[in-house]
TrEMBL record, chains A, B:
This is Glutamine--fructose-6-phosphate aminotransferase [isomerizing]. Keywords: Aminotransferase, Cytoplasm, Glutamine amidotransferase, Membrane, Repeat, Transferase, Transmembrane, Transmembrane helix. Its main location: cytoplasm. It catalyses: D-fructose 6-phosphate + L-glutamine = D-glucosamine 6-phosphate + L-glutamate.
Length: 612, 612
């Protein structure tokens, strides 16, 4: 996690860096800091809290500088406070570093440095790294870039770093392994950031730094080399991101904006891919690998958090339509086992940011075992998109709210298209059903719109449950992962302990939690498991639980049985999660707002998890 | 759920039935009742609450009778109260029924009966059934046994029932489908019950009624026939259960007794199967099917609750040792999909009671698709044990506490033995490792004993967290399912909302819940994922969470990092769950006791879930 920004050129660095940090706050926001270099020397200003708190702290200070860097933090080592905030100085104060990632062997390095007389101000692993660089430079009298390279060869872990030195006001040195870093190339000026959003106002020409590469900007020139000092030619590409896509557009929060964008984002994820009237479905990124997908003996899906939930939905769909056994794994668990990957096994990796560290590591492991990897990412050109053999972008547009919403529905849509393509190729789906599902997919955005029209009703229900301490979410079949996702949303932004379960598992333990204080959200749509879900509702009502049911419109049986009904339009069972998840997103959003939570930047979280 | 008991013979029925119900309270205990037939007619006495409450209610009443029946309930339809308690009368009050199960089409039947003038006192499905039987008898003038048979042919659902009639003080009519029923055959007397525990004091000769069978006891004779009226010969067998095995033996609760029995129950589950010094491992029940297991292309494990957790542990072990891909499914989810079962796929079903309705249904589905089914059950002769092709009993002895403890460790032990057998046969395990694991298995009971010696320390920690509102349990690899199991134990008996997660998933959402009020239990034993777990602990400590770590003895790094350390002996990674789960069982137990909970009979729960 953590967001980093750096600038060198002719503009005022401080406001530019601060503005960039605000764009990156989705990556972490428990403390922030900047380093500026000018006639006064190399000065670091930092503060616990959000970038806005840092900004207040800086108000009125004389901060003119044309080179600087900044950091917004998601704590891994050491609690969030002023001292642990970045940038960190070296021992003599002449070097400063910002770092995104984890240095796993920092304890050993730190011990050695302490023995050599280094004193540390913070508990962070990052401070250890800059001291280590300083020590190498002092010891071997080499250049700073050489010291950075040598230091990084000793480091175990993941990082994107930028280093500044008091001795050279034209120089920024950056490097990455595992954490993303984009370099913006302007006219006599350079930008660096964790993603392109702080850069696009100034230039669309960017270089994505690769793992094990070091970038040195010095005297207006950019040089890229590998850790073992082989020079490489930086590949400059155009970034296709527009400014308005990353601003709020009249909504109170990015999350709400993104929930309401879903009719469009779902449509975007199908654009150019589906033509129902012609029975046409093409996923360009899959074309050369579709046979491999369709003939696979087993699919392993890896992901984390919301992406893992999208994987669980996809499991049902692939098994049902394409008759291929699917296993869904937590990326973090998969990568530390010795997983069984056989010939003709396919791995699908899901990640909104395309930078999720655990998922990326899972891909590398699966690749090393000879698997074919498909990626489902939202961010074009991201590490995961580049690491996979084939894939399909979700095209949901930038997602800024930390709690994922439109990325989830776009992931499920794209995975459904993949399953349909495989089923069609394999011949496991009838032409009638294939065409029916394509038609229903095309009609889906309008139905999502209809669910969104009911937002006021959901807001009223949210009001009633504002002060609930716990929540349980239950569903069966395709709606079981939706229950997990609904619970996760509430957890993330309201800090209410919410948990999802397959409805029938409740009686094997969790039902002990049910009493008159416990709200239970049932996804009880009219599908093949409807009658069974109704039995489960009765078991909860018999224990006086308060039930909110997500039901298919026109449904009457539930009205008298439960406390609150939220109606959603009828769709084919296979597509139900795309509709049934929407009210749960809204419910979580409104509860969190009423509790006064910072919806877009919930505590402790970060948008893209680039540490393990 | 629900427990049923009935008696006809020469003894006093009422105390015998009440004593039997107490033995069955693990099956449900939200209300209880008895029906007694004597010169005064057919009288029903019932009460919300436990059997002890009913007993108080009955004190001082004149209740002499030599035929009677009783019921302890776990509510499915209608809240637990006096009226919904069983037995239920027919419309004219001349018939009474006790029922365990669910009548799914009760609403339709009820509507028809109301139209015919029936009046219902309760909201239960069971009352509908006895009215329906009465209606058939009245309408067709047939015998009661004929009316029962006809009624059951119309019924959709699961049941074990006993029916009594005011007209015949020598007659009990019973039937089963899906819910268990045992008939004890004495000298001129008969017993009926949901399991053998109420019977063994009086006779060891029992008949296990099969699905779709009706038993009629009349004038001292037992007759068994099928629903379509073909007479069958009841198979009388000896039950091998001793009385002391089902009593508390000096412990405050069955759960505590069962936790402390684990050194013995784990040893029992290996007895006669493992001889480490000879490198010998034989599972008798597997012998004819071992090749099939070892050569399987894919294993699907099905279970519910704690058994599902045992399945997750087994997934790691089978994949690691035998290199067979394993998928673990909730039985309730598996059975309502169209699961993909290919040739050479094997299904392993896990259930303590061997009566779990969802697991039984999953087995039937898998069988219909041609899979070979292995069972891992604790109760000998149970429905699941009989429905599978092969299997291994866990031999943990009767488990009475509703929260499963010794059954879990016995399941994991037996599944480990199965994986070792398969690996050995397949040649995927070295002889050295095979012998090492056998030796470590033999040494395991002594190590469990050592963990149990630390119970006082765990009690102290439990005291500190008595009033916690929430808990999070985290582990990686084999300890991830242990985290789930630890959380489930606490949930079940203390009603604290506890949730388990793979440690690395925390930062994808649940970490938002962490603040200084949140206790987090980490299973941080010295194994291959230890370093990564330490990083996750630091992430939690950085947010001021209170950390209890289960650590390997001699470990020093964690002492300064976390709030409380519970040390456990070192074992091979593969066997770790068998040790690491023990402190979590104790922690849950002591927290629940300090909160004043009814540990052996937590609210809303029942031991064996024989409804869907």
């Amino acid at each position: 996690m953590c967001g980093i920004v750096a600038y060198v050129g002719h503009r005022e660095a401080c406001p530019l860096v601060l503005k960039g940090l605000k764009r990156l706050e989705y990556r972490g926001y428990d403390s922030a800091g900047v380093a500026l270099l000018n006639g006064e020397g190399l000065n670091v200003y930092k503060k616990k809290g959000k970038v806005a708190d840092l900004e207040k702290e800086l108000a009125g200070k004389e901060l003119t500088a044309t080179i600087g860097m900044g950091h917004t933090r998601w704590a891994t080592h050491g609690e969030p406070n002023d001292i642990n905030a970045h940038p960190h100085y070296s021992d003599n104060g002449k070097l400063a570093i910002i770092h995104n990632g984890i240095i796993e062997n920092y304890a050993t390095l730190k011990e050695n440095l302490i023995r050599k007389g280094h004193e540390f101000r913070s508990q962070t692993d990052s401070e250890v790294l800059i001291h280590f660089i300083e020590e190498i430079q002092k010891h071997t009298c080499c250049s700073l870039e050489e010291a950075v390279r040598q230091a990084l060869q000793e480091v175990v872990g993941a990082y994107a770093i930028v280093v500044m030195s008091e001795d050279d006001p034209t120089q920024l040195i950056a490097a990455r392994k595992g954490s993303p870093l984009v370099i913006g190339v302007g006219d006599g000026e350079f930008f660096m950031a964790s993603d392109a959003t702080p850069i696009i106002e100034y230039t669309k020409d960017v270089v994505y730094l690769n793992d094990y590469e070091v970038a040195v900007i010095k005297d207006g020139e950019l040089k890229v080399m590998t850790l073992d000092n082989t020079q490489t030619t930086p590949y400059i590409q155009k970034v296709e991101l527009e400014l308005e896509a990353i601003e709020k557009g009249g909504f109170d929060h990015f999350m709400l904006k993104e929930i309401f964008e879903q009719p469009r984002s779902i449509a975007d994820s199908m654009r150019g891919r589906v033509k129902a009237d012609e029975g046409h479905l093409v996923l360009g990124g899959l074309r050369d690998y579709l046979d491999q997908l369709a003939s696979s003996k087993r699919i392993v899906i890896v992901g984390c958090g919301t992406s893992w939930h999208a994987g669980l939905v996809a499991e049902y769909i692939f098994e049902e339509l394409a008759r291929i056994p699917v296993e869904v794994e937590y990326a973090s668990e998969f990568r530390y086992r010795n997983p069984i990957i056989a010939e003709r096994d396919v791995v699908i990796a899901i990640s909104q940011s395309g930078e999720t560290a655990d998922t990326l590591a899972a891909i590398e492991l699966a690749k090393s075992k000879g698997a074919t990897i498909f990626g489902v990412c939202n961010v074009v050109g991201s590490s995961i998109a580049r690491a996979t053999h084939a894939g399909a972008y979700t095209h949901a547009g930038p997602e800024i709210g930390v709690a994922s919403t439109k990325a989830f529905t776009a992931q499920v849509t794209v995975l459904t298209l993949m399953a349909l393509s495989a089923a069609k190729r394999k011949g496991t789906i009838s032409d009638t059903l294939f065409r029916q599902l394509l038609a229903e997919l095309e009609a889906l955005p309008a139905k999502v719109e209809k669910v969104l029209e009911g937002a006021e009703r959901i807001k009223e229900i949210a009001y009633i449950f504002t002060y609930a301490r716990n929540f349980i979410y239950l569903g069966r079949g395709l709606n079981f992962p939706v229950a997990l996702e609904g619970a996760l949303k509430l957890k993330e932004i309201s800090y209410i302990h919410a948990e999802g379960y397959p409805a029938a598992e409740m009686k094997h333990g969790p039902i002990a939690l049910i009493d008159e204080d416990m709200p239970v959200v049932f996804i009880a749509t009219k599908d093949s498991s409807y009658e069974k879900v109704v039995s489960n509702i009765q078991e909860v009502k018999a224990r006086k639980g308060r039930v909110i049911a997500i039901a298919t419109e026109g449904e009457t049986q539930l009205q008298s049985m439960v406390d609150f009904v939220i109606e959603i339009p009828k769709v084919h069972d296979i597509l139900m999660p795309l509709i049934s998840v929407i009210p749960l997103q809204l419910l979580a959003y409104y509860v969190a707002v009423m509790r006064g939570r910072n919806v877009d930047q919930p505590r402790n979280l970060a948008k893209s998890v680039t540490v393990e």
